[in-house]
Amino acid sequence: MGSSKTVLITGGNKGIGFETARQLGKLGFTILIGSRDASRGQEATAKLMTEKIDAKAITLDVTNLDSIQSAVKQIDEQYGSLDVLINNAGISLDGGVSPSQLELINLKRTYETNVFGMFSVTKAMLPLIKKSPAGRIVNLSSGLASLTLNSDPESEFYGLNLLAYMSSKTAVNALTVLFSKELSTTSIKINSADPGFTSTDLNGHSGYRSVEQGASIVVKLATLANDGPTGGFFDENGVVPW
Ligand SMILES: NC(=O)c1ccc[n+]([C@@H]2O[C@H](COP(=O)([O-])OP(=O)(O)OC[C@H]3O[C@@H](n4cnc5c(N)ncnc54)[C@H](OP(=O)(O)O)[C@@H]3O)[C@@H](O)[C@H]2O)c1
């Protein structure tokens, strides 16, 4: 068992997750890249290792309980605990349709990954995180989760009305708040991060922020000091309204 802190990043093989891995790797973390596809995970860790980052791929499909359990077993056997969990894996399936045109199956599939997957990984990893002296959990939410912003005609993304993706991220925020209440007597901090509109495959690279910018709030919440917040929702400028 090494002395550096361990971080598991779900969907860490590309996009904001991969950049988060790079930034935390540079800070000295041991990086566990959760990737649903083993070869994509290996490629990602190979890239990180060229930057002298200590990285390892773990096959992890957040919608598959066997895959989650086998990831728990591997981390337990090799490290005995987990310092940071970044629930980053996410999908968007709305295809631009308005709520009444959304197919139920796409709503269900979105929740399978963004909500039920996040719940299952968090639940399964918690015993390992509790063994860390200062566990941190970061849930990738979005400004599009905010019911306050979604009801404000002046907000930047008021024109977007993607029921599956947006409501799944609202549910992510609920997970953050409710888990934080349960964990309030522990040293674990759990927060939601809004990376902003970031250029990745998720949005066909239409985002205007770089992955470096998007990952910065995630890294900040992953490395919170012991007096840092828990149960909150933050972007790089501070608190985001629920
Ligand atoms: N980009 C933005 O503007 C933006 C804004 C707000 C929030 N976010 C959130 O940020 C997070 C990262 O998104 P991104 O923009 O970096 O998108 P991305 O480049 O498409 O990356 C998404 C990652 O999630 C993985 N993934 C999807 N389903 C999975 C599953 N069932 N099990 C494990 N991994 C799975 C993908 O794996 P594969 O490579 O195998 O597909 C990929 O590694 C998401 O939660 C997203 O909702 C993004």
Structural write-up:
- Strands 3-2-1-4-5-6-7-8 form an 8-stranded mixed β-sheet, sandwiched between helices.
- The chain has one domain: NAD(P)-binding Rossmann-like Domain (Rossmann fold, 3-Layer(aba) Sandwich).
- The protein is built from 7 helices and 8 strands, in the order E-H-E-H-E-H-E-H-E-H-H-E-H-E-E.
- The protein starts with 5 loop residues before the first strand and ends with a strand.
- The model has no long low-confidence stretch (mean pLDDT 97).
- The relative contact order is 0.15.
- The protein is 42% helix and 14% strand.
- NADP nicotinamide-adenine-dinucleotide phosphate (NAP) is lined by residues 10-11, 13-17, 36-37, 40, 60-63, 88-91, 113, 117, 140, 142, 195, 197-198, 200-203, 207.
What does the overall shape look like? globular
Identify the CATH architecture.
Answer: 3-Layer(aba) Sandwich
The CATH class name reads Alpha Beta
Tally the structural domains.
1
How would a crystallographer describe the biggest sheet?
Answer: 8 strands, mixed
> How many helices in DSSP terms?
7
Average pLDDT, to the nearest integer? 97
Structure at a glance:
The protein has 242 residues and is of the alpha/beta class.
Helix and strand topology:
Elements: E1 6-10, H1 15-26, E2 30-35, H2 38-50, E3 55-59, H3 65-78, E4 84-87, H4 104-129, E5 136-140, H5 147-150, H6 163-182, E6 189-193, H7 211-222, E7 233-235, E8 238-239
Parallel strand pairs: 1-2, 1-4, 2-3, 4-5, 5-6, 6-7
Antiparallel strand pairs: 7-8
Helix pairs in contact: 1-7, 3-4, 4-6
Bound molecules: NADP nicotinamide-adenine-dinucleotide phosphate.
NADP nicotinamide-adenine-dinucleotide phosphate (NAP) is lined by residues 10-11, 13-17, 36-37, 40, 60-63, 88-91, 113, 117, 140, 142, 195, 197-198, 200-203, 207.
